[in-house]
Amino acid sequence: MKQQSREKHGREESHDHHIHHGTHGTHHHERVSLNRTALMATVHCLTGCTIGEILGMVIGTVLGWGSWPTVALAVVLAFFFGYTMTLWPLRQAGMAWGTALGLAFASDTLSMTTMEIVDNAIMVAIPGAMDAGLGTVLFWGSLIVSLIVAGIAAFPVNRWLIARGKGHALVHAHHGC
């Protein structure tokens, strides 16, 4: 009887271990999938922000604008291009403007806001970066560093949003973000 009990107990332990291991594997897969989705969302938003930031910084610098008007233009253009990158595929899929705009605003605003705050704070904080000419390593190096750090800062924001069914999780079903 004790042998039977041990065998039964051993099978239960083995079964429990298998279930736990299987669940652990599922959680690992979900975590990897969540990280991958958050990374793709971050790259997506960072691409739009980068286009706008570079155009804004270049235009402001060429026109001889001060730091704050240049930053303002860069932010406006970053949001424009960021939202456009989400809107374009939604509209191509036949989604109505109102629905597409609502999804773009809901999915991108917090991520792009995070990126813009970090990116522009770094550009303003680096001595001389905003006044450096377009042909200088200081200008381009500062801009590249600021965008990389902005992307790193936005990743956990996107991951948090997606884990809660927000952010790019809202548009994921509508286009291949």
Name the descriptors:
0% strand, 177 residues, 83% helix, single chain, globular, mainly alpha, 5 helices
What report would you give on this structure?
There is one protein chain. The protein has helices at residues 2-62, 67-92, 97-125, 137-163, 169-172. The N and C termini lie far apart (59 Å). It is built from five helices and no strands. The protein has one domain (2-172). The relative contact order is 0.14. The chain is mostly helical.
Which helices and strands occur, and which strands form pairs?
Blueprint: H1 2-62, H2 67-92, H3 97-125, H4 137-163, H5 169-172
Helix pairs in contact: 1-2, 1-3, 1-4, 2-3, 3-4
Beta strand count = 0
Tally of distinct domains: 1
Which spans have pLDDT < 50 for at least 5 consecutive residues?
5-24
**Alpha-carbon distance between the two ends:** 59 Å
How do you describe this structure in short?
The protein has 177 residues and is mainly alpha-helical. The chain is 83% helix and 0% strand.
